[in-house]
Design brief:
This protein is an alpha/beta fold. The protein has two domains: 64-207, Rossmann fold, CATH 3.40.50.1970; 212-405, Dehydroquinate synthase-like, alpha domain (Up-down Bundle). The protein has helices at residues 8-22, 75-81, 98-106, 123-133, 147-160, 204-207, 212-223, 225-239, 245-259, 268-288, 297-308, 316-330, 334-346, 360-369, 380-384, 388-405, and strands at residues 64-68, 90-94, 114-117, 140-145, 164-168, 180-185, 188-193, 199-203. The strands form two sheets. Strands 1-8-5-4-2-3 form a six-stranded parallel β-sheet, with helices on both faces.
Amino acid sequence: MNQHLSSATEFLVRRMEVYSSEGVRRHVVHRPVFLDQVGQRQRFSRDSVESVSALTQMVRLPINIEIRAGALNELSSILASQGLSTSGNIGVVVSPGSGKAISQRLAPMLPNARWHIVTDCTLDSAVQLAEQMRFGHYDVVVGIGGGKIVDTAKYAAAQIGLPLVAVPTNLAHDGICSPVSILDSDAGRSSYSVPIPIIVIIDLDVIRQSPSRFIAAGIGDTVSNISAVADWDLSHQETEEPINRLSITIAHTAAQSLLHHPGTIQGNSLLTILAESLVVSGIAMNIAGSSRPCSGGCHEISHALDVLFPGRNALHGEQVGIGAAFATYLRGDSEMAGRIAECLSRHSLPITAAEIGFSDEEFAQAVLFAPQTRPGRYTILEHLDLGLDTIRDAYADYVKAASSMNKNRVELVKI
């Protein structure tokens, strides 16, 4: 096997080979993953951690990951070759927008498929979709669309006990292969446990048709893994929270594969690496049994912006990218904060809150509120427990430092 890793996927394969042959013996504590308990919100509880023999544990992975141009055109043959559906009796979930155009193109290739258009990707919609599909005698559910469509399809498939094939149409975030569905309801936005997709198909021709801003956002979400795993390590040291080194290694490697990549989102190399990194980030969460390896103070800040200032136009990946750079700066690692900011800048992602329509004061208020978004999660924000005045000063220092390191950066189109 080559000594140099060409991609995050190759790394994962190599790592899983070692994992399978040697077993898990030291420095790895697994938390139980109850994939059959659909609808349970994700919560960390020390009382829920059980001691389980490494020999009895099983990590679920997709049986196939297709990342290439034109892959979606071979959906039927991919399903047949993996023994999922030789009859073509599949339920396909799409959006009324881009999904409609895709359904018109694919319908002649999938004569036995039934198309389900979802306009409102909420918990109620996911439950209704499950009821509609329950008596369809499908072999598999296929979700084609953005993150909301895939999450809705994930939840519905889990409710009726069918495997899901995820076909994202953009690369805006790392939920493609994660073991959760994020859905809105009257009670707010919540995460629900679901099985990970059995197959992931990423057609690079389809991805290129999405706005470049959505592709770049996926880089922000993946690079934020660097801050998230640092937060998990911090919690392990300070609170003795169990940690999973395998999932940390995978999540961190996914981020590092993008941090210094010289390519652009217009090129095949970076686009493929991004797709692979988003998929393996989801796998890292599945191994961990939670979002811990990919979600720390960076995501708490993003959640706080969503809660305090709803209706703004910033993307998740844009917000967590800024959150990761600032959280890393708070951690005292100014060198890594600079690397993250430089990476974001290189791909025309924002490095300050002002670039996505938030004032310095609004951002400081969000950082102060952030720990309330994930009760029980310990990050650099909980560790420092900063007051508002200190946050204001720290953010002002961060902006000066980040701006000085990126004097020649390309200015973003203001929202």
